[in-house]
Amino acid sequence: MQPLVIKIALLTLESNWTEIFTTESVTLRCGLQGDSAEWEYKWYRDQKEIQRYETGHKYRILSVTRSDTGQYTCRGQYRRRRVLSEMSNDISITVSGRMFYESLQVCGLQGDSAQWEYKWYRDGQEIPPYGPGDKYTITKATLSDSGGYTCRGQYRGRRRVLCEMSNDLPIKISGRKVLCTSTWHNQQEIPKYEAGDKYRILSVTRSDTGQYTCRGQHRNRTVFSEMSDDISITVSALPKAVLTLESGWTEIFITENVTLRCDLQVGSAEWEYKWYKNNQEILKSGAGHQHTILSANPSDTGGYACRGQYRRRTHVSSEMSSTLQINIAGRFFS
């Protein structure tokens, strides 16, 4: 005996779209006109019955795969009698899988990607993007940007839809700390005829005072290193030596002692002194700031001068003092 066919089944999809992505959940609902408490349900994909343990009016696929693609229908069966409803309308469901393809600069999706936004990861940790779109740009790379980069798409209208993770692209940022050898002065680039790692000022002047920095530039690309730490250089004027005679007179008699004193207009602890008579350096055992003639004689007559010399940088000398004329006179007896 053929079962009596009554009622019309209505199949609906509870989501608003029929293109489903892998790992999404899908719920189909089979409704019957009138009282449906005494009815159970049969489900079909591509006209083949789907074997399932429950017979409720909803059919849910918790995590869809591509094999779930097909045309779905349903119908009701009366619980106590072999009475079947008419077959429902069909709903076509397409399950799409989204795969990334390898790209150095673009995190791209195969197929239409207009409805997708992107998530970016370094060493498995999500990193904030600097802007929308399928490109992630590091504008000024540092050593901390090294790591394994991956990306994946997220559907704009369905936050739970994520495509598979892309391939891993390792990026290594190399560099070394730049020693300051000065290519910038007070934030103004210094024009140089050579591009070596040393910058030399052969004879400094006070205008060379300032903060110096430098950075490297790749020879074949417009790639710059980070700016170095700054070094502050202060160029001071050379101190002037002041020569004085400790006695109150410049005419000295033979056998008298004479003491000359050389002073600098700076702290003198780091300075030693050179002495001159008639523009010729006087060789003496000490380099103190006093020069003593213990028992003067006429040969000591002449123009005396002095200057300071920096102990740790022997090429740095003060300005020469003014010349002090000393005359050694013979004694006269009455």
Automatic annotation (TrEMBL):
<feature type="domain" description="Ig-like">
    <location>
        <begin position="3"/>
        <end position="92"/>
    </location>
</feature>
<dbReference type="InterPro" id="IPR003599">
    <property type="entry name" value="Ig_sub"/>
</dbReference>
<dbReference type="InterPro" id="IPR013783">
    <property type="entry name" value="Ig-like_fold"/>
</dbReference>
<dbReference type="GO" id="GO:0004888">
    <property type="term" value="F:transmembrane signaling receptor activity"/>
</dbReference>
<feature type="domain" description="Ig-like">
    <location>
        <begin position="107"/>
        <end position="232"/>
    </location>
</feature>
<protein>
    <recommendedName>
        <fullName>Ig-like domain-containing protein</fullName>
    </recommendedName>
</protein>
<keyword id="KW-0732">Signal</keyword>
<dbReference type="InterPro" id="IPR007110">
    <property type="entry name" value="Ig-like_dom"/>
</dbReference>
<feature type="domain" description="Ig-like">
    <location>
        <begin position="239"/>
        <end position="325"/>
    </location>
</feature>
<dbReference type="GO" id="GO:0009897">
    <property type="term" value="C:external side of plasma membrane"/>
</dbReference>
<keyword id="KW-1015">Disulfide bond</keyword>
<dbReference type="Pfam" id="PF13895">
    <property type="entry name" value="Ig_2"/>
</dbReference>
<dbReference type="InterPro" id="IPR003598">
    <property type="entry name" value="Ig_sub2"/>
</dbReference>
<dbReference type="InterPro" id="IPR050488">
    <property type="entry name" value="Ig_Fc_receptor"/>
</dbReference>
<dbReference type="InterPro" id="IPR036179">
    <property type="entry name" value="Ig-like_dom_sf"/>
</dbReference>
<dbReference type="GO" id="GO:0006955">
    <property type="term" value="P:immune response"/>
</dbReference>
<dbReference type="GO" id="GO:0007166">
    <property type="term" value="P:cell surface receptor signaling pathway"/>
</dbReference>
